[in-house]
Amino acid sequence: MMDKTMNTTVEILGKTYSIRCLESELKLLQQAAVMLSQKMAEVQNSGKAINLERIAIITALNITHQLLLQDQQKSTVVDKINQHIVLLQNKLDKVIHHTEQANLVYSD
Description:
Layout: E1 5-12, E2 15-22, H1 26-46, H2 52-107
Antiparallel strand pairs: 1-2
């Protein structure tokens, strides 16, 4: 079954925008629009930006910064997991080698 492209609208900072998206992505798009509108309202309410373009740029930078931090944290976690896997593999190799040695002694 093919995913249909559809027209929808989202509201960001009180303005309505027409957007085309895949039907399967509609719910996620709507959630993204709500989150973006909230983040932009936070920037607007902080008084750091007055016009819409500046609000959008500061919000985009903030969101991108958060995304990069999450990617960095994910990378760190993956590295730690990989280190633990290597340690476990080494332990298993030692146990298997020890077991094989014991089997050789008993089989002679």
